[in-house]
Amino acid sequence: MDIRKIQHILEQLADVNEQLVSLSDDIWLGIDHRDNESIIEGSQFIQDYNLATSQLSKAAATVELQLLTYFKNDIESVQPVIEHGNDDTIKNQRMIKELDRSKAYSLNDNFTYKRPYGFVLKGIAYTNITTWKAVYLKVLHALYKESPAAFSALVTDKRFISKRENPLFTEDQKKLRVAQSLPAGFYTEVNMSANSIKDALLQVLAYFSIDEKEMKIYLREDRDA
User: Count of CB atoms within 10 A of residue 152's CB?
Assistant: First the structure.
């Protein structure tokens, strides 16, 4: 079995899922909010669409888990290893220099239908990233490593619970559409669009008193336009 094919399939699964979720945001913005009939029709469509994409996201997550479990001995080949400059100053400077050849984006930009390649957080570069989910989880892992006690309190902080009582972090994975375990012993929602992820990151950075300017995003050229 060619492991590269498995890696490519996983990347495609994640990419398609993120695009479908982003499309929901795009369709909602395209509804004429001054037209009641358009709002009613659009709202019903969005509800049905979100249900269908949620089911697809859960199926994709199950397939991913099955593949990673079956190919556990080749886990580093199946899942791209994210490069970082945490432990090597010279390497980190080189990575930042390479990233800066492309345009840097802030978390206030619109990332609909765009794919990440890397990011810099508090002066540390991360590359070889293929999905927004990977960006989100890598940031969370970095913050956990830096402040484990503060990170553990995320699960009880009310700012991460929506008005409809939907948590971003929880110890009960059944409360999430697609749950991802975190090193702190609880779960986070990962079935989010690119823009929902960047909004979540803005919240998390604010929680840790990190200026949003401390994070820069770099996009893949094939999705820059």
Answer: 16
Q: What is the pLDDT of residues 151-176, one digit of tens each?
A: 999 999 999 999 889 999 999 999 99
Single-letter amino acid, residue 191: N
- Least Cα distance to 220 among 134, 123, 155, 141 occurs for 134
For residue range 76-124, what is the model confidence (pLDDT) as tens digits? 556 667 889 998 999 999 999 999 999 999 999 999 889 999 999 999 9
Edge to edge, the sheet with strand 124-127 lists 83-84, 124-127, 116-121, 215-219, 104-105
Question: What is the rounded distance in angstroms from the CA atom of residue 187 to the CA atom of residue 167?
Answer: 10
Using a CB cutoff of 8 Å and minimum separation of 24, what contacts does 166-175 make? 168/200, 168/203
Say how many C-beta atoms besides its own lie within 10 A of residue 197's C-beta.
Answer: 25
- Joined tokens for residue 28: 């909602």
Q: Which helix (H) or strand (E) holds 16?
A: helix 3-30
Residues near 46 by beta carbon (within 8 Å), at least 6 away in sequence: 24, 27, 28
Q: What pTM, to 2 d.p., does this model score? A: 0.84
Q: Which of 20, 44, 16, 39 is nearest to 29 (CA)?
A: 39
- Residue entry with tokens 């886990």: 75
Average the pLDDT over each of 22-31, 143-152, 194-203 and give the range with the smallest value: 22-31
Domain ranges of the chain: 3-78, 83-223
